[in-house]
Amino acid sequence: MQEITRILHSLPIDPLTGAISVPIYQTATFVQEAPGENKGFDYARSNNPTRQVLESLIATLEHGRRGLAFASGLAAIDCVLKLLETGDEIVAVDDIYGGSFRLFTHVYEKFGVKVHYVDASDPNEVLKVLSPKTRLVWLETPTNPTLKIADIEAISRFAHAAGALVVVDNTFASPALQRPLTLGADIVLHSATKYLAGHSDVIAGLLATRDEVLGDRLKFFQNACGGILGPWDSWLTIRGIETLPLRMEAHCRNAFAVAQALTQHEAVAEVFYPGLPSHKNHVVAARQQTGFGGVVSFTLKEDTTAAALAFVTSTKLFKLAESLGGVKSLLCHPATMTHKSIPAEKRRAAGVKDSLIRLSCGIEGAADLVEDVRFALNALGQLTVEAEQSLHH
Hints:
The chain has about 400 residues and is α/β, with parallel strands linked by helices.
């Protein structure tokens, strides 16, 4: 069965009315026949029929046993971190999302949780730092923003042998392109704000687990801490997922065209896109993904913040904004935006240079996006001078 068919027909028809669209149950509580006797719902923090459909849907998409929906991707990350105790350790990708780094460093480290950051594109780098204290191996693949690829299957074997769980942030690939649970991961994480909802109109986070018992533990934390996704945002996310495979085809097609154009421009130093044969992890990406995603990153030969700012403020179709994964193209300068919370030396060591620019290719015409990028690159010289003057003032 094709993925689009599987998604559409995994959504239930409303048993009460026959509605083909999942109803929005905008209610805080549910009437009970007697204390403890109800129709499966008692209070909307604990469960809600609309959210339940979404949670079942993400479990189905990821081939997992349990799905959970949260008010944001960071709320989902926070739920997973509640599995830890003082003295536990995490092995995480070195170019990790800035919000995850901030949560690890400024919230959980003070409770005695230690984090080791490694280049997980080489499984042996993960193996080197695994210890009896390691409880979680935290992967993003592709990573944000340098698009490194981690071999999920190999790293999962190493982690499980050490007694650790593997968490994969699958936001950039989405389950349309990659299913980490089938490759050995224990928990898959999504900022559903991005490709799953897909229209830049909702903040949401999702988890799926391979194991029912682990899913129950996370469900306890979800209910106890309360960072749940509301019914309206659950419905928006469901509606977005219905077209996920179709959108991802366009995102991938456009990103590949843009990546190819960038490799041919004299102002560009390096292009990061796993779909390019020149990408150091291309073979691994081709093995574990069915497509290479809609995000392209690149650095400029003039490796300065001024040059990057000149580019990101001169495109017409690519809009400067936080986030990614929507139908409209976005771009950002990670060093001053998404990864600003990471110390400069650590950020640069992970490959996030001052001139690195991240493009989120939407579903516009590929030729239009390529032309937009070329225009901004061609105008870069004069614009950089103006940007430098602005920075100095």
